């Protein structure tokens, strides 16, 4: 995604906020477009940090959820959901969420951070909302940013690298996976799958747009399902090559908690 002008309803964007490709004026335009299209602006965190917005630049009808740097992520998401419901009652088209992600809010590690992003993606998909998550690359290590990028359908910023695969919400406990999953990104896929399966005993994954998954990727998927007891992943839409490789690897058995559905 080149600029904020390209955002649309339902989008969840990973914004590399250090990038010189995006200026405070671009962010102001994003906010102004909210008023133009009838969206309510919800800023999570102090203004003026990653966004470059001064508090006076935010329209009076907007909401600023000024949580501390270390806050319960579920409480933050619950507050955003409340604002979305309020916006609907007030006649807004949707909500435009702008949130800065900081390392201090991810003390439990990368998997917890990815789980939070999956929840935000599910929120954007279910509520037809726009969610922009600002990450300063100077504050994060490269592997963490790689993991995070894989669970955003879109990214912005001059240093934003297109991930090998993406995993994004297609409904409650349902995720679409596209691209290629190989040994280089198997760890990121394992983290994303583990983050999804921890939220529900049964998760559906759509492989319609997945081009290829190698042995490392298949092992990552099975390992994620086995990470917690009584978990099950149902894969739908896999192409014939993926299905054949799955059978040849010996995973098409009753003892494997991943089912490659017909």
From TrEMBL:
Gene3D superfamilies hit by this protein: STAS domain
Query: What range does the record give for the signal peptide?
Result: none
Looking up InterPro entries in the UniProt record yields:
MEDS_domain, STAS_dom, STAS_dom_sf
**A Pfam family matched in the record:** MEDS
Per the database record, which ranges form the STAS domain? 177-262
Q: Which residues form a coiled coil?
A: none
Put simply, this protein is called MEDS domain-containing protein
């Amino acid at each position: 995604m080149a600029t904020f002008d390209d955002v649309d309803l339902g989008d969840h964007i990973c914004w590399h906020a250090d990038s010189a490709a995006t200026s405070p004026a671009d962010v102001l335009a994003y906010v102004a477009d909210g008023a133009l299209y009838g969206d309510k602006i919800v800023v999570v965190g102090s203004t003026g940090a990653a966004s470059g917005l001064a508090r006076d630049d935010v329209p009076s009808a907007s909401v600023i959820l000024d949580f501390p740097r270390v806050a319960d992520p579920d409480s933050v998401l619950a507050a955003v959901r409340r604002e979305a419901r309020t916006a609907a009652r007030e006649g807004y088209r949707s909500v435009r969420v702008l949130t800065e992600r900081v390392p201090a809010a991810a003390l439990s590690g990368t998997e917890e951070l990815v789980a939070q992003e999956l929840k935000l993606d599910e929120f954007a998909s279910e509520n037809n909302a726009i969610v922009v998550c600002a990450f300063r690359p100077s504050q994060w290590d490269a592997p963490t940013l790689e993991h995070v990028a894989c669970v955003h359908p879109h990214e912005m910023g001059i240093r934003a690298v297109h991930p090998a695969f993406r995993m994004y919400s297609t409904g409650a406990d349902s995720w679409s996976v596209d691209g290629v999953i190989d040994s280089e990104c198997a760890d990121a896929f394992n983290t994303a799958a583990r983050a999804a399966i921890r939220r529900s005993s049964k998760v559906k994954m759509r492989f319609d747009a997945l081009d290829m998954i190698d042995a490392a990727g298949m092992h990552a998927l099975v390992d994620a399902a086995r990470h917690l007891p009584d978990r099950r992943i149902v894969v739908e839409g896999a192409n014939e090559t993926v299905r054949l490789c799955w059978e040849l690897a010996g995973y098409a058995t009753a003892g494997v908690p991943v089912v490659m559905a017909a």
